[in-house]
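Sample pair:
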Amino acid sequence: QVQLVESGGGLVQPGGSLRLSCVASGSIVRVHDMEWYRQAPGNVRELVARITTGDSTNYAESVKGRFTISRDNAKNTVYLQMNSLRPEDTAVYYCKAVASTASRWRNNYWGQGTQVTVSS
């Protein structure tokens, strides 16, 4: 099994920055693509950013130019650098990973989420 733990969320003023981290642990053979999602109250859960095993990236239009996703494969960690934060970025941010163990190949795993609040 694989566990994902997010950290780095908190309260920040508009225009500020936060860096989220997500660490995968467990009986991991390989971590494949990793993603960040977010969900605000009353909204659907939306894909924010994706990074592949080849370090290709994709971003939601609403965060392009402001957010940067990266990964450290040696640490099984994915990051989301969030700059120029806006109130509409307020949401619970979730980490998702496609990972393989000895018994399951390319299964989906989710973190518990971390709250990001952008407010004056």
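The mean pLDDT is 97.
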